[in-house]
Amino acid sequence: MKEENKSRCIKCHYPNLEEIFTFCPNCGYPVNSNYCSDDNCEMNDPDDPVAFPETDCFCNYCGSETKYFKDGLIQPQKYD
Ligand SMILES: [Zn+2]
Ligand SMILES: [Zn+2]
Fold it and tell me: Which contacts of 21-26 are long-range, i.e. CB under 8 A and separated by 24 or more positions?
């Protein structure tokens, strides 16, 4: 079976986001937009901003909150 490149919306959990989508067609939340919340961070290069994995709560470069964490969409995990 061929693996489909679909993912869920971080906000509304809409299950059929396609790779080419910029916004969720259900709730309008920007897809793959877990950026550092500090506009001056190196990770937010205006030409090529880096989006963190959707589970990352803090920027691994400057330690600021990520956008998803700031919007209350994710929480830090507990690891054993
Ligand atoms: Zn959505
Ligand atoms: Zn940062």
Answer: none
Report CA(10)–ligand 2 centroid distance (Å): 20
For residue 22, being part of any structural domain is answered with yes
Domain that holds residue 23: 1-32
Q: What is the mean pLDDT of residues 52-60?
A: 97
Contact 45, 38 (CB under 8 A): no
Cα–Cα separations (whole angstroms), residue 1 to 4, 25, 74: 9, 26, 31
Burial environment of residue 54 by CB neighbours within 10 A (0 to 12, 13 to 18, 19 or more): middle
Q: How far is the CA of 21 from the centre of ligand 2 (A)?
A: 25
| Mean pLDDT within 50-56 | 96
